[in-house]
Amino acid sequence: MSDSTVAQPSTSLGTAFVERNLDLVGKLYQRSVYPSVLDVAHGKRLSAPLVVDLDPTTVCDLACPECISSQVLHHGQIGQDRIVRLAHELADSAVRAVILIGGGEPLLHRSVGEIIEVLHGAGIKLGLVTNGTQIHRHIDRLAGMLSWVRVSLDAGSADTYQAFRPSRGKRSAFPQVIENMRLLASRKQGRLGYSFLLMQRFDEAGNVTDSNYHEVYQAGVLAKEIGCDYFEVKAMLDQDHYTVNQRAEDIASVEEQIARLRELEDGSFHILYSSNWQAVRAHADAVQPKDYHSCAVAELRTTITPTGVFVCPYHRGNPKGRIGDIQQSSFAELWSSADTTVIDPSEDCRFVCARHDTNQVIPLLAERPEPADLTEDFDPFI
């Protein structure tokens, strides 16, 4: 799983939901965020990142063949006592938001409920990326304590779901996930999203042997019927996070379905697509050149996993992007000695990065002759 793509609105949308919550550059100018961003622009270290991607476990109950996190799966979890202490350490820090994500399925960690309660009690905003199979076990906390939950489904029917997101048992988990989402939609205080990753399989001759492209519209209709706030389409990536170029007819098919789904949009339901799908539909080069040699966002966000702390989700499991081990030190100690410049984006991040625009803007802030025009806080998930 990954939160590393930023959804872009369809052209028919102009709501605050779309314009503000999905504008990563615009989020820098929030009143309580900007001082930290400006410090980073001037080359200063922060006492803590503003956002933490937290992988409680590398265990997953699904066996998805195309899983982009396959190389980091099933390597244990952060111990129950340690992760509760970590939650308190984050609560005592300047961290503003935590995304429970993975590697594995975050809701499978036995202490996840306590983690949510500790962080929520400290005023830290919470997001969750999940496969949805365990939502019912934590429904009270998820409904009342999270700012948003995004469920990765990638299908609109049980058969397609079983083909691309098979469970480790024999039965498809699709009915349970849909029931769980209905339950959460009926009680949620935050946003609920239905995530659809476009996937294809090919034979040795390059012919498509299996696909979920035909179910975009069906899945979007289901998302609205469930009570989701948005339906998001993402492009397939390879194991190195590069977009996979698609045939023109397949792109056209997806675009036609998205166009029909836009007719379902209203004040409470939106159709979104990721920055990497934008790149695919524009036939853009999978390589995104970068002329900067350090990632400013790495000082504002970090990724904590059972196997190490990494500069960002793109480099989860990459030894070069590893900046510490939460099992060996407190978060404050780890962060104070971390080198967030270990990754050179011009060499190590040649894929399409959702925060490329943010990284281009931040260095310019140090050269501004006048104060920035700031907005009131609206979303800490920068």
UniProtKB/TrEMBL annotation:
<dbReference type="InterPro" id="IPR050377">
    <property type="entry name" value="Radical_SAM_PqqE_MftC-like"/>
</dbReference>
<dbReference type="InterPro" id="IPR058240">
    <property type="entry name" value="rSAM_sf"/>
</dbReference>
<keyword id="KW-0408">Iron</keyword>
<dbReference type="InterPro" id="IPR013785">
    <property type="entry name" value="Aldolase_TIM"/>
</dbReference>
<dbReference type="InterPro" id="IPR007197">
    <property type="entry name" value="rSAM"/>
</dbReference>
<dbReference type="Pfam" id="PF04055">
    <property type="entry name" value="Radical_SAM"/>
</dbReference>
<keyword id="KW-0479">Metal-binding</keyword>
<dbReference type="GO" id="GO:0046872">
    <property type="term" value="F:metal ion binding"/>
</dbReference>
<protein>
    <recommendedName>
        <fullName>Radical SAM core domain-containing protein</fullName>
    </recommendedName>
</protein>
<keyword id="KW-0411">Iron-sulfur</keyword>
<dbReference type="GO" id="GO:0051536">
    <property type="term" value="F:iron-sulfur cluster binding"/>
</dbReference>
<dbReference type="GO" id="GO:0003824">
    <property type="term" value="F:catalytic activity"/>
</dbReference>
<keyword id="KW-0949">S-adenosyl-L-methionine</keyword>
<feature type="domain" description="Radical SAM core">
    <location>
        <begin position="46"/>
        <end position="268"/>
    </location>
</feature>
